[in-house]
Amino acid sequence: MKSADIRAAFLGFFESKGHSIVPSSSLIPGNDPTLLFTNAGMVQFKDVFLGDDKRPYTRAVSSQRCVRAGGKHNDLENVGYTARHHTFFEMLGNFSFGDYFKREAIFYAWEFLTSSECLQIPAEKLWVTVYADDTEAYDIWAKEVGVPTERIIRIGDNKGGKYNSDNFWAMGDTGPCGPCSEIFYDHGEEVAGGPPGSPEEDGDRYIEIWNNVFMQFNRSADGTMNPLPKPSVDTGMGLERISAVMQHVHSNYEIDLFQSLLKAAAQETHTSDITNQSLRVIADHIRSCAFLVIDGVVPSNEGRGYVLRRIMRRAIRHGHKLGQTQAFFHKLAAALADEMGDAYPELREQQAHITKVILAEEEQFAKTLDKGLTVLEAALADVKGKIIDGATVFSLYDTYGFPVDLTADIARERGLQLDMDGYDKAMDEQRKRARAAGSFKVDYSDTLKLEGQTEFDGYKTLQTKSKVR
Ligand code: ATP
Ligand code: MG
Ligand code: MG
Ligand code: MG
């Protein structure tokens, strides 16, 4: 089953159950300064859940483009390392705004996955989780759907207290949230990993395919949880993950959507092994970069633009790692338009623009990439222990345009970490020098601020939470 057919089947199934098909919204959340990028299907419905916006329907279904490259849901560091995480992906979702609740949501999901009219996934390959104290959801799965209790896992308070666990979904630090019930697919014993809730759950064997969130609360900035006007449902299933299941492959990178991208990337970088990790990163990143450009983001030194720059520079660096010294990344916009242009005509309409924006970034980074890598290699040759010194990390950032996460990415490949305390110190000294010189042109404290938003903490996390990474 092709990805496009799965997408169509999902929309059609829920339409037949009285859901209105709603088009994907922009990756830039409209009027929501708390969120960096649209990271789930529910984002465009946030105000509907809160009761502040009314729609002519109480049931909706969508295939939403999502980016998770910063903020609460950030998978940038997972790309290239897991078979299931992308910076850009499509989320299939059905929604109930005060209409149906747990029982119907669970039954719909099960029917779509297992029935002979739909995906026909063998039931014994599926595992489910429920929030620790959600007996209602547990009983629906066990007694009504008939999932054997060995494959129903309660997950919750073990990971940092009530309402703060994997089975309590939240869009961001504030906003609609609630307990959830997730469905996992077992890719079989040839893949490493353990069932949800086990110490080995982080592998790619038991892959989470679908999250059913029972939206019940609105979390405010001070942490209080207020009940929503009406209990609602928000679900999300990664199209690429369900495609891997339906196409009988164990990695998202082996599904149809990625084949021509990987081939184009291989051709541009003269790489023969299509499973090469850098190729996968490049194929992933062209999707997020192109879609972000379509939605109006351009590479810059702050906020959303800086996240885009970070993604682009990572892709460019991976090309360089494959021996590519000429600009190559922009050329992949054509392969992407061929692959996804039917579903997203903007890719064709804006192909020239996307190509131009990426090429400009490649040309700019080309000016410093080689020199920066030489500096980094010298530091690596000289490294004491497992930590790259903060002054080098800062100079790579400040002089050579290496975002810290890019340096960290290279370090990780060598099993090394960055001295973030030293980096902070070097940054402080630079700021003092700039002030002493009366130059306020570059405000280093401001480079990553997104106006009014509270959630984007990708960089702050680097600097304050994990001092060494
Ligand atoms: P995981 O635990 O695997 O990181 P998640 O719990 O963060 O996933 P949700 O926020 O529950 O994911 O999102 C709903 C669904 O979207 C997931 O069940 C999965 O199918 C899909 N999904 C989430 N993150 C990604 C990603 N980075 N790339 C591709 N698909 C994703
Ligand atoms: Mg995740
Ligand atoms: Mg999860
Ligand atoms: Mg989840």
UniProtKB/TrEMBL annotation:
It is found in: Cytoplasm. It is an enzyme of class 6 (ligase). The chain holds residues 1 to 469 of 875 of the full protein. The keyword Methyltransferase does not apply. Belongs to the class-II aminoacyl-tRNA synthetase family. Its EC number is 6.1.1.7. It comes from the Bacteria. GO terms for molecular function: alanine-tRNA ligase activity. Keywords: Aminoacyl-tRNA synthetase, ATP-binding, Coiled coil, Cytoplasm, Ligase, Metal-binding, Nucleotide-binding, Protein biosynthesis, RNA-binding, tRNA-binding, Zinc. It catalyses: tRNA(Ala) + L-alanine + ATP = L-alanyl-tRNA(Ala) + AMP + diphosphate. Binds 1 zinc ion per subunit. Catalyzes the attachment of alanine to tRNA(Ala) in a two-step reaction: alanine is first activated by ATP to form Ala-AMP and then transferred to the acceptor end of tRNA(Ala). Also edits incorrectly charged Ser-tRNA(Ala) and Gly-tRNA(Ala) via its editing domain. Its main location: cytoplasm. Residues 1-469 form the Alanyl-transfer RNA synthetases family profile domain. The keyword DNA-binding does not apply. Its cofactor is Zn(2+). This is Alanine--tRNA ligase. Consists of three domains; the N-terminal catalytic domain, the editing domain and the C-terminal C-Ala domain. The editing domain removes incorrectly charged amino acids, while the C-Ala domain, along with tRNA(Ala), serves as a bridge to cooperatively bring together the editing and aminoacylation centers thus stimulating deacylation of misacylated tRNAs.
